[in-house]
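Budget justification aside, the reviewers requested a transparent look at the raw inputs and outputs of the sequence design task funded under Objective 1. We therefore reproduce one unedited record. The lines immediately below are the structure tokens for a 217-residue chain.
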């Protein structure tokens, strides 16, 4: 079970407990972790939080596109968009999520979609109108990142309208639609809030944090 008691599942069909799919290949899933959240910093330190999340994604072979703070059913949460290589090595999987942490546990809502047989079309079109130096830029959260997938402007939301069927666009649109409908259990909402990790050295990038975005579902 998860603390999520309801959400808009329009267009989705349940495939297994807590996992739904739609007819365009989107996968929606909800998760509960009965562990102290492995976020690298509290929400009171957003720069360090984003820095750590960017390194987490890169060291797992992916790339953090965006991380923003917000609310899910009035609780503080962090929204991430991440890209990771497909297991078969062909194209990328794009993942959008909300992580809602409490002091000793957390819940995650995740939407993901994979590229099909044709890959890189969005990137090629955006790159064709730019100088490479404008296209590939240092990561805004962690300019010192080495490894993982490169950060580039084709992933920016401003390009979604031009590519409505791209998996990243569909992930963004779906997560945006679902977010206002998410309802959390009152018991979960009453738990003590997440605070800054008590031992920051154990939260360094690459120190064994759970890579929930590597899960198949």
């Amino acid at each position: 079970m998860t603390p999520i008691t309801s959400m808009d599942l329009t267009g989705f069909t349940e495939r297994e407990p807590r996992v739904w799919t739609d007819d365009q290949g989107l996968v929606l899933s909800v998760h509960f972790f009965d562990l102290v959240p492995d976020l690298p910093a509290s929400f009171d330190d957003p720069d360090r939080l984003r820095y750590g999340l960017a390194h987490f994604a890169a060291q797992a072979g992916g790339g953090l596109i965006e991380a923003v703070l917000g609310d899910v059913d009035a609780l503080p949460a962090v929204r991430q968009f991440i890209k990771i290589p497909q297991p078969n090595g062909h194209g990328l999987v794009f993942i959008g999520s909300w992580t809602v942490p409490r002091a000793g546990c957390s819940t995650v809502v995740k939407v993901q979609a994979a590229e099909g047989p044709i890959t890189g079309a969005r990137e090629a079109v955006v790159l064709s109108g730019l100088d490479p130096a404008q296209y590939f830029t240092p990561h805004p959260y962690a300019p010192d990142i080495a490894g993982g997938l490169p950060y580039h402007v084709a992933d920016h939301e401003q390009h979604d309208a031009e590519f409505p069927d791209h998996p990243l666009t569909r992930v963004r649109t779906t997560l945006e639609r679902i977010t206002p409908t998410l309802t959390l259990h009152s018991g979960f909402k009453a738990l003590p809030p997440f605070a800054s990790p008590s031992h920051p050295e154990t939260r360094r990038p690459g120190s064994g944090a759970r890579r929930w975005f590597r899960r198949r579902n």
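Confidence is low (pLDDT under 50) at residues 199-212. The chain has one domain: 4-187. Computational costs for records of this kind are itemized in the attached budget.
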